[in-house]
Specification:
By secondary structure, the protein is an alpha/beta fold. Helices cover 28% and strands 25% of the residues.
């Protein structure tokens, strides 16, 4: 039986260090019926000279656009291809052995298999973070994906007839592979991860230190995940020893406000105090005991919150977002919680209020115990342009449940909500004595 023609699409941008190694490894493949198409994104190094001089059979297509869209580049290459199967590989990836094409192709045992992606391994000179990430992500077990849309075009093969029905998204700047894979799953097709078709990938999939890229990918991944109509919001209130003022628990007033917010479905109060339980009788409120192993000070509040959530709330109530506030912040702006909820942005994992720190001459101790200046000025506060801000999570913050179950309210992907400094007042042990 004659071999099927495989079209190999390679995207390049200044790959002069890698492209020769990549094409040489492809030339050594045991599978011989293939064509190679390079889509070059305005390389200004020796990439194309190396290709033309050493690999004259390779077809080169120029990507002519001021802005690079990976899906558009791949689609351009596939439009010029002749094969029934399309292998896609980055110009800086190198097939590990001569069976790379064979091992990708043999997975298409059913017409329901839309695409296959293979293992990626680091080089000895790769950054330690890259080595860790690739080892964690690309395992040793083959798997068939019917729900998980993870797919990676640094090392993949797709069925052309299914591409003709669903092309790669030409508007997204990143993860065109995962968007395409999700659509294939939506249509009842499957994806395969096979560790045998392996490539070396020097910088890995996360482009270490490229913060702008990471932020953009995060937004793409989350922007369509939840809209305001489908949010299920709950509130958690952690209280160790409730504070009383004028024979009334100070938390009562705030909880009364929360009860009136229709978008909040349930209020979970983590507290063992029986008197407080009697005061807060409402069908919307559920009390949870703080189990003994969560009463240890050294665990910290974030640990207590996420453990309580995972054990008592997550499975039964399945919220999309969690609002947490602490009783020791008694002063909040008018309609604070309503404004907080209105400012939820699904491009971010967490929404946290901040205030300007208007203290003068702020110092910190470094690891050696020496003092280092963070902010210093002799100007009065009325004219000072303060650049120091303080988080006040206890005033009230909202976190996505997917982040909360792992990190509590901590997230590097946070949106901040500025309030006036007067609302940052927190009751401490000294203040408790006064009231």
């Amino acid at each position: 039986m004659p071999e099927q023609l495989v079209s190999i699409i390679i995207r390049t941008k200044n790959e002069s260090f890698w492209i020769g190694k990549c094409l040489y490894a492809i030339e050594k493949q045991s599978y011989r019926n293939y064509e190679i198409i390079i889509i070059d994104n305005s390389s200004n190094d020796d990439t194309l000279r190396i290709v033309r001089k050493n690999f004259p059979k390779v077809k080169i297509i120029r990507y002519n656009s001021k802005k690079f869209f990976p899906g558009r580049a791949i689609n351009l290459g596939i439009q010029k291809s002749k094969g029934k199967f399309i292998a896609i590989i980055s110009g800086h990836c190198i097939p590990k052995d001569k069976f790379w094409i064979n091992n990708l192709l043999k997975n298409f045992t059913s017409k329901k298999i839309a695409g296959v992606y293979g293992k990626q391994e680091p080089l000895d000179t790769s950054d330690p973070d890259v080595i860790r990430d690739l080892i964690y992500l690309f395992g040793k077990d083959k798997k068939i994906q019917t729900k998980d849309p993870f797919f990676h075009n640094a090392n993949s093969m797709i069925r052309k007839e299914l591409w003709q029905k669903v092309k790669f998204d030409e508007r997204t700047l990143h993860i065109e592979d995962r968007i395409w894979a999700q659509e294939q799953i939506n249509r009842g097709n499957k994806l395969v991860y096979d560790p045998k078709p392996c490539v070396f990938h020097y910088h890995g999939i996360n482009h270490r230190n490229n913060v702008a890229r990471v932020k953009t990918i995060s937004k793409i991944l989350t922007q369509s995940s939840t809209n305001s109509d489908h949010r299920k919001l709950i509130c958690i209130v952690p209280i160790l020893n409730p504070t009383i003022k004028n024979n009334k628990f100070i938390v009562e007033e705030t909880i009364d406000k929360i009860i009136k917010i229709k978008k909040i479905k349930k209020i979970f109060v983590i507290c063992d105090n029986k008197s407080l339980r009697k005061k807060l009788l409402n069908k919307k409120i559920i009390f949870l005991n703080r189990v003994d192993n969560l009463k240890k000070d050294f665990l910290g509040l974030e640990y207590t919150l996420k453990e309580t959530y995972n054990k008592f709330i997550k499975q039964k109530y399945k919220p999309t977002h969690i609002l947490v506030f602490e009783e020791l912040y008694p002063h909040r702006p008018n309609n604070f919680f309503e404004k907080l909820i209105k400012n939820i942005d699904d491009n971010y994992d967490c929404l946290i209020p901040i205030v300007k720190n208007k203290n003068h001459n702020i110092w910190k101790k470094n690891d050696k115990g020496d003092l280092e200046c963070i902010f210093k000025t002799t100007l009065p506060s009325s004219v000072t342009d303060y650049k120091i801000f303080q988080e006040i999570k206890g005033l009230g913050c909202v976190t996505k449940s997917s982040n909360f179950e792992i990190n509590g309210r901590e997230s590097p992907n946070t949106k901040f909500f500025e309030v006036n400094s007067e609302y940052s007042f927190k009751i401490d042990n000294f203040t408790k004595k006064l009231i």
